[in-house]
Specification:
mainly alpha, two-stranded antiparallel ribbon, 2 strands, 74% helix, 463 residues
Amino acid sequence: MEKIELQELMPELSIRFNDFIASLNTYFSTGDNVRIISFLLLSLAIALFILLMAVIFVRHIISIVKGNRTSSGASGNEFNDFDDVFDLEDEDELERELQRELELAANEQQMQEEQELEHELRTKERMERDNIERTEREEKEKKERQKEAKKRLENEGYYQNKQYKEAGIDLDWKIGQKVEKSDNKVENIEALSMSYKQSSVELNNLMGLAIDMLGRGVDELKIAQTLNFKNQGMSDENEILKAIDSLKEFINLSILGKFAKLEAYNELPNEDQALYHLANGDPTLALALLENLMDSRIDKANMSSSEEKRQQIYAEVSKYACCFGSLAEMNDIMLATSSYELAIELQSTNVVAWGRLGDVYKKASSMPKAVWAYQNVLNFADSEIDINQIANANKNISEQLYAEGNSLQAAKLYNSSKQYYDSLGINRRLDKKEVEIIELIESNKETSLPEMINKLLSRERVI
């Protein structure tokens, strides 16, 4: 069927082709130069069209090849040209150079850190060695002084007051009271040399001596020196000064009539009773008076409509709370801690309260809290007014720094504190005459103490 159709189509195509050839012959035979030019232009256009199609086809093929190469995930190294290869080699070389420089810098830094660490260790070892040598030297000197003092006392004997010799009475400093000699020793008392041995006395048992000396008008620093001598290192310098300040504060409040103005005064113990009990190591009555005074002043502050007036009263009560805490610290450290915390709550810049709060935290073995409190002392303290609080803070912070291994800074703070206390003379030993005077005061304490208390509370002067 297809062959028949093709045979029928061929004549028709032949006729058409012949007609086309005839048309061309007619065109060329009858045309002029313009027709020839137009034919050439047409041929050129056809050639350019074919070339354009070829270019488009080639670009299409190239894009297909590139797309296949990217989608296939091949490394593509075999498709990179020479410029890409050279660029990669340059980048690798730069990267290697940078790595070498970084390694050199790291090595130099490590060497420098090792040298600094070695220098620091050598310095620390030298400081510790110096501290050990200094401590050993001080201990040796102390032992030599003690040995010389003991020898001197043994050679010279102890001077005994004539009235006690005649009465056959000796003063035993171990118990701080008069001790009668037995009859068989009275006849030999003149011939015996008395060697002095001082035993330590707790601070709360020395309040009677402090009150007696205050009544006699003795200087505060001399009282501190005496208490330190009797205490024999059981309490540090700050605790002794703190106890004396508390006594003076309570006595001043009594002299100024602060307790007498309380509504419940008739139901409270008298000031002289409180002082007498305090002299015997019992602060209970004094604390009762102070507590009622603090409550009364806080109630007045809360009723005041003036913020300035309230803050003034709070600052006043904060001071009373420090006195309360110092007296309470003799028997109840928890009560003292609460009192100091109240003082700071009432006046956050109370340097005395911060210092004493650090002391009770230290006693409770809570050194992080203690150091925090001492740091606040240094933050709020006036270098001219709060010298004692600064010295105490520096001393206790130095102990913590030494425990942490910072010997240099610890030594600096400790020496600063020690210089202050040495300048007060609180650590100086009493001479023989001073010891005799204190011995006489203590021997007559039972009879003289009420008289001294009455003298202190006579409101003739303010300590």
